[in-house]
Design brief:
This protein has 155 residues and is mostly helical. It is 60% helix and 3% strand.
Amino acid sequence: MISKHTLKTFKRVPLVVTGFFADIPVSLLDVRRNADAWTAREHLYHIVDVQEMLLGRIGKIRDEEHPVIEPFFPENEEIRTYADTDEALALFRKMRKKQYAVIKSLDKTDFEKHAVHKEYSDYSIPIIINHMIFHEYWHMYRIEEICLMKDEFFH
């Protein structure tokens, strides 16, 4: 199973991201610090873009007897665009509510099932939930670097 603290964190991350973006000046949303770096807006849009795919993985593990998960490489995907960050954040919050409802509907056997993943030695719904939390916070950290880090330290 997964701890109630982890589930609370999972449920609340979109609210944290929304608050985080409220403090970012619009002038910094599209700053590209170097040729290889994403902008703050691109980080946010990526976070939102992967939510449907991750929900699909949860459903695949729940529904299939021997689920096999294909790796996802964002560099092979085009980042969707939204009208603005408010639209993206609203979709993120909506998707998380949907994901949370699915997770709350799972039974013990769903949480104990494992999938084959070409990239990971172990893969399950609890791992996906942790991965989502860590992934979203990692992107917020990168956004903070874009907005605050001095050029000589940015990598």
